[in-house]
């Protein structure tokens, strides 16, 4: 039975995309270290969920229902939707890690959860990239921006982003699979069970495509746009304060810090096909780097919107409006409350007529 388990482990590691299993060769000290890593990862996942749900929901509420529909609010709305949906599915992965990488939810939810995660993670990255490009063109090339920066064109770009993110996340629907191992059901990428060469090719292609399209290109685009923006805006003396500079810098640094370890470990993981001696490092690094990448989904609304003076003003006004109506409902009787609402409606109608 032991020989059979070791044989299964050797075959399994050849086509496993994520090292979410425990090697039979690990001693108790190594397993304790991996257990500590698992708990740290869980804390980070829970932090992302707790911060990401209200943060992105607030952005969706304002950009989707309260603010005027503009190109900028469309970018922020879709960015928040991508982050919100991703964070919404996070409890499934939290449960998976908490149960020692045991997936009790079935193969189809394994595929769907991985697809939704990758779809929204990369949609979020692409919207960050588009926001940086739009910001650059709007400030540095105002004539070009005025001519082509329309809601119609923005909707076309938005659909293209979601389509591209779907294509990158699509392989998860095909390759993601479940397998019984060490009394656990694992959710992993089964590239091929019996052909190591095909496994190697598929693993390399998907990893490098994600790295180039989902990290290198967005990072270079954001860096170049913001560097040019900072230099040209300073040169034209249009920089009102250093607040803008530090906000821009924070966005690029957050993207760099959150996503660099994830892609480095993904590339490093390719070494498992050649008998890697760093399996323990990978088993510890991949969950932690994934948690750090997930963290970017709750940082986005803070860095892009919540520090905006405009957003803060709208937020305070909306809270004041909600409190006002709540106090009216509590303090006034039914008929009086109705009269107040009718009076307020008439006043608004008069203002609209006068304008």
TrEMBL record:
PROSITE patterns the record matches: G_PROTEIN_RECEP_F1_2
One of the record's GO cellular component terms: plasma membrane
A Gene Ontology biological process term: inflammatory response
GO molecular function: complement receptor activity; G protein-coupled receptor activity
Domain G-protein coupled receptors family 1 profile, chain residue ranges per copy: 55-304
Keyword Transmembrane applies: yes
Subcellular location: Cell membrane
Topology in membrane: Multi-pass membrane protein
Transmembrane segments: 36-62, 74-94, 114-133, 154-175, 212-233, 245-265, 285-307
Name of a matching Pfam family: 7tm_1
Keywords: Cell membrane, Disulfide bond, G-protein coupled receptor, Glycoprotein, Membrane, Receptor, Transducer, Transmembrane, Transmembrane helix
Protein family per UniProt: Belongs to the chemokine-like receptor (CMKLR) family.
PANTHER family for this protein: CHEMOKINE-LIKE RECEPTOR 1, CHEMOTACTIC RECEPTOR
Record protein name field: Chemerin-like receptor 2
């Amino acid at each position: 039975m032991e020989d059979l388990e070791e044989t299964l482990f050797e075959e399994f590691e050849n086509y496993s995309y994520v090292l979410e299993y425990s090697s039979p060769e690990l001693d108790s000290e190594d397993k304790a270290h991996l257990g500590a890593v698992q708990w740290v990862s869980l804390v980070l996942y829970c932090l992302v969920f707790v911060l990401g749900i209200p943060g992105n929901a607030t952005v969706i509420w304002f950009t989707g229902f309260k603010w005027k529909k503009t190109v900028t609010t469309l970018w922020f709305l879709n960015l928040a939707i991508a982050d919100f949906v991703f964070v919404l599915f996070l409890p499934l992965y939290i449960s998976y890690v908490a149960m020692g990488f045991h997936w009790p939810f079935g193969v189809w939810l394994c595929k769907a959860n991985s697809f939704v995660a990758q779809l929204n993670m990369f949609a979020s990255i692409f919207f960050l990239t588009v926001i940086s490009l739009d910001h650059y063109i709007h400030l540095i090339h105002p004539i070009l921006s005025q001519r082509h920066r329309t809601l119609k064109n923005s909707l076309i770009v938005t659909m293209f982003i979601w389509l591209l993110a779907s294509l990158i996340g699509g392989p998860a629907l095909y390759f993601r699979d479940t397998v019984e191992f060490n009394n656990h059901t694992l959710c992993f990428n089964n590239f091929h069970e019996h052909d190591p060469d095909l496994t190697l090719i598929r693993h390399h292609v998907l990893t490098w495509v994600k790295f180039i399209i989902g990290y290198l290109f967005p990072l270079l685009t954001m860096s170049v746009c913001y560097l040019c923006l900072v230099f040209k805006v300073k040169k034209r003396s249009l920089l009102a304060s250093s607040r803008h500079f530090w906000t821009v810098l924070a966005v690029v640094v957050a993207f760099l810090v959150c996503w660099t370890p994830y892609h480095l470990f993904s590339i490093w993981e390719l070494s498992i096909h050649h008998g890697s001696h760093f399996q323990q490092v990978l088993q510890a690094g991949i969950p932690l780097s994934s948690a750090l990448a997930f963290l970017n989904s709750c940082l986005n609304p803070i860095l892009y919107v919540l520090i905006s003076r405009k957003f803060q003003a709208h937020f305070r006004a909306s809270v004041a409006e909600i409190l006002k109506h709540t106090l009216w409902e509590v303090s006034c009787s039914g008929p009086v409350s109705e009269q107040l609402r009718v009076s307020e409606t008439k006043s608004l109608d008069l203002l609209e007529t006068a304008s």
